[in-house]
């Protein structure tokens, strides 16, 4: 290997109460695809922000091309050849691709020249994109291409990508990876942040693993199993018990012709959904975000009402019932958004336990709340689901994402649902907590509950779901057994790559 | 930053320290209780500066407002006034606080107060001069219903058509004021009043008079109702699921819908209850301290109660204390006007400052100020 492009040595950054990076060292060679792995809170973002000049290190040094590298702000980092594609896009919907890119430039060339350059670069790297299209009409994958092109126009030496595949279909991921490999072959180094281990194994040359702010290991991901990497991230061994094959039970939930307009102007209407959910079964619903997942959850939880017969719980029409009535009948839900939807941020865990558990757990009598019983229920959730918190009096917003998610899922699971609907149960949750949550869902199904798991994490659905269907623009694909599905088929069910597969022909 | 009293915190560029606001992981309980006290203190300082700028002795002015009514020479007269003025404020503020907690903004309590008074007085005047025990209870019921009906107008409009209850309730205040004037000059005018505007004086109609329960204490039925309202609100918010739903809706509306709260019913409940309580306050006032329906019957209790509700942290006991404090500034302000010649506007500004500083100091409940060394520039 040649001399490193970027060498980081002993980088430390402390925030009040937490050392985000504790003497982190790593180096990235020219043309290398280097993975940065770690749980949430392991310090990946802080490290990357220091490289990109958004955060100043307390101590430690960085050298770029052998010269000291002390970026005071992102502009300095960009001038030195460091570019970054963020997880959340910063694009203006109402402007065209070229206009958006021009806005991010120090001294943009005339729009006509810029358009030509955009077209050149996009063709060179297999990222098809029409510079005149309005960003608001683009898919998530295409928007990401705008961000990548914006970086490539700066001729970067180091490209940092933060969780780039979370919004992409498998086909779009494949296109992205070809582009990244091509860039690497030309000598551009790529720092790739993800916690999708299989991706890292296909794409990256080396991986640096962070845990609690320290780099604990460096490995060659091609020679390391995903499980070994996960264990390095978490620091313990992980185990999900394999699920025994079962005969499907009686139908618990029957959805027939469910159509529903979205209450949100930019939402997605549900279009004539049909499916059934059997006792003891986990049905996985995949799809790129914004294809009707939130609306489906709301329709099932009772926040949106539909025709009574469109949703039947054990044969009983419940489509017109509200959330409390459905809960009484055993249909429980856990929405994706933890703060503000599944939980009230400023309320204590006791009050949040009461939120959905009041009736089923007998936490009130004739409208009067028994705070002792509610606190007891909260304490049970905390201990059964290993929620790390000082106690039930803590405000929900004081918990980390993973711990609050364990609380939210635990709250529903402990109420012994007949049918449980979860949306993104492990979104933004660290690996250990994700394993615990998935195990809880598997155990619940083993006890005979019917579970509908809406998720954008395909690995998760392949791991726990018996059958799989995908939402695409509010329509549901055919539902098929997971064990017989290939990644290619799943991608097509999710709506393919929006007609962009030809790009690399 | 929001703290007007601590200027030294702001240093110039290059100074070794800087101030940063840091969000607390959870609201500070200590500051929840301390910030109203700090707000009162800062108001005294800023108010004192205001009075000094008007050429008055600030210490004397502040002392007149806060000390004179309680312990001055004529305290025997002013102390009962504390209940007379505090009771309607507390009664209205309790109702408003339920809505404010749920994110339902009834700004029109003044109008509901007027309509409650008109309905209550209307029933009383209709029975005049019948001497019967049931007249006063009927007036109480009519007053509550009047306020409730007036409060339900913005409620129903919001639920049905999605109108903004802030604007509708506020505009209905002016409608109510016109109605009051029309009533005082028309149907309710005292037939024996020799053409003067205003109704018969209910103080002279024993069956309808809301007299002091113990003479010269200011302890009339309105004060009793305020006390009951405080206790009921405390139980509702602390122990009843409806109170829990009110708080949940205010803090996280989406979570409340997920929990199964019907937002429309909650809006109607909050506007209905706050309207009814404001109506009761108006009815107790017109049949007691005011005595008659007159053009200038309403003096702004409905608006001041908004300050009282927030000053009391939307907590029933806090509101009881804040109501008494506000009554004190009313009474003390009047004394300061007559004794020291302070303009009425200065007193109103003083009361407004209280809310202003409370909202500013409130920042400390959710944020903490941190003194940090300036980062070395690279």
Automatic annotation (TrEMBL), chain A:
GO CC entries: plasma membrane
UniProt domain ABC transporter: residue ranges: 6-237, 253-498
Name this protein carries in UniProt: Galactose/methyl galactoside import ATP-binding protein MglA
Pfam families cross-referenced by the UniProt entry: ABC_tran (PF00005)
InterPro entries linked to this entry: AAA+_ATPase, ABC_carbohydrate_import_ATPase, ABC_transporter-like_ATP-bd, ABC_transporter-like_CS, P-loop_NTPase
The protein's Enzyme Commission number: 3.6.3.17
Keywords for this protein: ATP-binding, Cell membrane, Hydrolase, Membrane, Nucleotide-binding, Repeat, Sugar transport, Translocase, Transport
Top EC class for this record: hydrolase
Localization (cell): Cell membrane
Gene Ontology molecular function: ATP binding; ATP hydrolysis activity
Membrane topology: Peripheral membrane protein
